[in-house]
Design brief:
It contains no helices and 15 strands. It has about 190 residues and is an all-beta fold. About 40% of the residues are buried.
Amino acid sequence: MSRRTVATAAAVVALAIVGTGAVANASTAAPANATGACVNLSNQFCRTASMQVVGNGPNCTPFPDGNYWETKNDLLGHPIAWTYANGSTPCVRVNFTARAISNACTFWLYVPQGNATATFTLGWSDGRGGHHTTEAVNENATFGWSELTMNPGGNRAASNVTGLFFQDNNGQSFPSELGWGTNNGFGIMQSC
């Protein structure tokens, strides 16, 4: 039986929401679990996810509706997409375009409340042709805006970032779910 044809039931867990409202000023870090929409400012940029199918064959089976990811609202009402983790076979890639700036910037990923239980790293590229990875994001441990550690050495900020991405081949498998925000207000936030 395909991992995507297995019927799933949504488990609703009551969690306290810490810090709601818009993340309005890049000079102040977003509080843990802040869930408000990203707001474009002179030093803060909000980026939308683009999704693509990167694999096919028997290990990349779509959901019954023919899509490789599902779209819905998370438990907070924000638009998201999600897919199952797929072991070592890449099927889905989620991309974010960054604004390449020579100053150091911090990056925040919107983690949905619900349909987000996986742990994964994001790859990122810089304007000098370099390719890097972030420290792992554990979606099961948080929701809302999660600050990325851009270098496994502990640096939270990076400069000249041109794009970020992750894929569903994170080494985990069904029933782990990778979730992400799908519009400008709930994708990636870049603060410089």
